[in-house]
Amino acid sequence: MTRGSTLPAHRLPRLPTPLDAFNAAPDDEAGALLLHCLHSLRWSHRIADHRPYPDVESLLAAADEATYDLSPGDLAEALAGECLPPVPDGTYSAAHTALSAANAAYEARFGHVFVIYLGDTPPAESLDRVLEGIRSRLTNDPEEERVIAAEELRRLARGRLAERLRGAGQHPSAAPPRGATSHARPAPGK
């Protein structure tokens, strides 16, 4: 008994990803997305100018590499775009006062905002982690702190880029980055 000709396996078309859209976007749209994530024009231009990227990891590696070339002005621009994460509900006013005082001391010492990558820190523990981070980093010399702040900023930017360019549901581990600085104003585009 013959069954007839065998049909080729059915292939679903490959759907475009957020990275595909980013790679194909006009320069101004790609630049706006990058500026929203990186908060630095030069950093954003460096990443946009090297499109297309074959995968998100290549883009993240390029963003990481570009971090090491940020001038003090680029770093200051990127840091100025950061803002504090929301303080958990039910936080005592004394905690707000402590955070404000610690932020003021940090900015007075280093002349720029405080930034920290909170990663998987539970929201209920984020305030303690921020306060602990500020207090421990206040002992750093300015050059050491500049290097640490740039690294924290790199980690925040990497998380934002991964979240935007991997797309919802593709990588559950790519949760939105959580970070903190001493300015409560929203970043551009937020």
Which secondary structure elements does this structure contain, and how are they paired or packed?
Blueprint: H1 18-24, H2 27-38, H3 41-48, H4 56-67, H5 72-80, H6 93-110, E1 116-117, H7 123-137, H8 142-166, E2 179-180
Antiparallel strand pairs: 1-2
Helix pairs in contact: 2-3, 4-8, 6-7
Short description, anyone?
The protein has eight helices and two strands, in the order ααααααβααβ. With 190 residues, it is an all-alpha fold. The longest helix has 25 residues, at 142-166.
Describe this structure as you would to a colleague:
The chain is an all-alpha fold and 190 residues long. The chain is 56% helix and 2% strand. It is built from 8 helices and 2 strands. It has helices at 18-24, 27-38, 41-48, 56-67, 72-80, 93-110, 123-137, 142-166, and strands at residues 116-117, 179-180. It has a two-stranded antiparallel sheet. Helix 2 (27-38) packs across helix 3 (41-48). The longest helix is centred in the C-terminal third of the chain and has 25 residues, at 142-166.
